Give the backbone structure.
Amino acid sequence: MTETRLRTLTSVLAYGLSAAVFAMLALQNLRYGFYTLCYLAAGLSAISLGSCVYTLWVSRYQLRARGHLVALTLLHGVALTGAMSAPGNGIFWSLPILVLTYLVLPLRQALKVTLPVAALVAMLVAWQLPASESLPAIAALATLVASAGLASWHYDHMAQSAEDLAIIDPLTGAHNARFLDETLQKEISRARATTHPVSVLMMDIDHRGQISEMLGDGQMPHLYRRLAEHLFTLIRAGDTLYFLGEGRFCLILPFTPEEGARVTAERIRRSIAEAGWPQVGRMTVSIGATTHISQDSLGERLRQRATDALEEACRRGQDHVWFNADAHQVS
């Protein structure tokens, strides 16, 4: 199940349960003749039900939906009205909505909404109830908000960890090949929209077969990791590194024109050749480079040009950088 579907399911169930609870609360207040509280509870039920319908309507782009913030702010406003209308019981109107907020909104947004509301509810409780009753209620309120916030943080942390596992190669710590295609397409779309250049470097270890025979297959993963760590020290913060397997790496360089790609590729080639590699001694790489042009609309085409440039660099004697401008190559 994707995060979008999980968010949709969680929000639908949370809103639906809230609508049912507030509907029963409205009926209970109607039964005993508390008409003001009945109307307030019915309003909360209606808003929750509408939010449930909204969640289903925006299910395809759940993570970007902004209506939840409006709906929950409205729910808190109505609940605070109920808190002021029911001295002594105001805290019970806001507790379920505080929990609902953490279930529906991302943690940062939920904190921005719930902390001011919780502070206001605490002041209302302290004003409406004697100290012997207000202090335990405020402590319970603080515990609830802290627990809900901790649970939300834990969920976000687990979701981020799962996402990292999906896009990070565990061998080298670089991004994996699947994430390369996705990122490259995004960078091309941004380049076409902003006219800023983006370049791609494709890199392969020279004489990899001989190195593998010398080290043994069991030691090659350690070499790949060391090489990835070395590359991380050479690239900028906005650049991204990808491990494609079998000693091949790819780098995406946003906002980098042709000249910048040439300079970066040459710096990487020279740095690797001059570095000392345990059990290997001297190691060299070949690099193919290319830059996005106006005709590029697919990441696959840009990636293929970089691959063609790499193959040309290997044909020219290895330990070499070759730049592929377009259909014809420019050295």
Remarks:
- Residues 327-331 have pLDDT under 50 and may be disordered.
- The domain at 177-323 is CATH 3.30.70.270 (Alpha-Beta Plaits).
- The two ends are 48 Å apart (CA to CA).
